[in-house]
Amino acid sequence: MKHSLDNILDSLNNVTRAEAPPYFYSKLRNRMYAGLLPKPMVWRLALALVVVALLNIATLQLAPHSNAQTDANAQSIASEYSLTLPETY
User: Fold this and answer.
1) Rounded to 10 degrees, what is the CA torsion of 75, 80, 85, 88?
2) How far are the Cα atoms of 28, 40, 41, 76, 83 from residue 45, in angstroms, in the given order?
3) Which DSSP string do the residues of 22-48 spell out, in sequence order?
4) Contact at 8 Å (CB) between 3 and 10?
5) Residue 55 and residue 61: Cα distance in Å, rounded?
6) pLDDT tens digits, one per residue of 24-82
């Protein structure tokens, strides 16, 4: 048993440290950062999303809610195509 362990340990005597090819780390770093957006661009996109969301909310709050006009439009379309609308519409 000791002899087999010595053989295994002796096989490690000639092992050298692996060398990376030239410019390996710079290529790796460039690949990692190539897919990322720059920080100012991320903040611009986030700001644009917030502005669009606020405009949508403001539009929903400020838009007039006239059911009479909607009912009249639906009734005119129904009469144009000879349809009957349910009373709950």
Assistant:
1) -20
2) 27, 9, 6, 44, 47
3) TTHHHHHHHHHHHTSPPHHHHHHHHHH
4) no
5) 10
6) 989 888 888 887 767 788 889 999 999 999 999 999 888 876 665 667 787 788 888 88
Asked whether the beta carbons of 74 and 85 are under 8 A apart, the reply is yes
In the chain, the N- to C-terminal Cα span, in Å, equals 90
Residues 6+ away with beta carbon under 8 Å from 37: 45
**pTM of the predicted model, to two decimals?**
0.38
* Residue 14 predicted with pLDDT over 90: no
| Cα distance between residue 87 and residue 39, in whole Å | 56
Amino acid at the residue 61? Q
Residue labelled with tokens 């957006």: 37
What's the CA gap between 84 and 51, in Å, rounded?
42
What's residue 66's pLDDT?
Answer: 60
